[in-house]
Amino acid sequence: MTVPLTYFGVHLMFILPPLLILGWLAHRRDRAWWGVRPLSGLAIMIGLAVVYTTPLTNHLIPAGVWWYGEGAVIATIWHTPIEEYTFFILQPMLTAFWLFQLPATADRSLAIPLTHRLIGVGSGLSIAGIGLLLTANTPTYYLGWVLLWAGPILAIQWGFGLTYLWAVRRPLVAAIAVPTLYLWIVDRVAIELGIWVISDAHTIGFAPLGLPVEEALFFLVTNVFLVQGLVMYVWLLERIHELPSLTRLATRLAARSDER
């Protein structure tokens, strides 16, 4: 049975309209983030999203974790539909343009306690470790892969800026929560319409309001990646003046290397 709405139709109906509105507002509002710094950060996030997510989907789709309804997609590259690759670009834009409405900043140095860095790295790696264990069983396979995939990125981000992220936690939570809730609704609608189907065998069977917890977790962690990454990128650029000593050190090391 052909699905009543295609994956491309989901983009046109649910993703592009709010994306365009939020982008227009960010461009027009004086208090919103816009310009080279946040937009260059967004470009980096998009590139990372495509590179890092492509292997995951091309592993999980042939493994039978999810599949697409008849006529739901135009074509695939590798095992992933073109529309999925498009979403790797559209989701960062949607989430970023919402973040730009409520900039999360604090006057904090790039230097944070070593213990905070170790806690951040350790927490992220622990999540990855739990995920690795869960991939060994079919019912927890999808959940395990989401955690295994998310853990290393969380370790890097929390290791770099856990203290700063805590300082801006209130706007950070709002920036993550709103697009996540919206994408949960879109995902639930798409599942109901049969645009994509989530495997019962590869999920734990907990699906509040019809949305598998694995799907909910995926959208949550991807938005956490995006918001934390953009917030810390802008923070880094704002505090770049703290790094001249590192620049001088790199110059000296390069000079010694040339002398040899």
Task: Give an overview of the whole structure.
The chain is mainly alpha-helical. The chain has one domain (7-15, 33-243). The protein is 69% helix and 4% strand. It has eight helices and four strands, in the order ααβββααααβαα. The chain has a two-stranded antiparallel ribbon. A hairpin with a 2-residue loop joins strand 2 and strand 3. Helix 2 (36-60) runs antiparallel to helix 7 (213-238), helix 3 (82-99) packs antiparallel against helix 6 and helix 5 packs parallel to helix 7. The longest helix is centred in the middle third of the chain and has 27 residues, at 141-167. The chain is globular. The termini are far apart. The mean pLDDT is 93. This is Lycopene cyclase domain-containing protein. Pathway: Carotenoid biosynthesis.
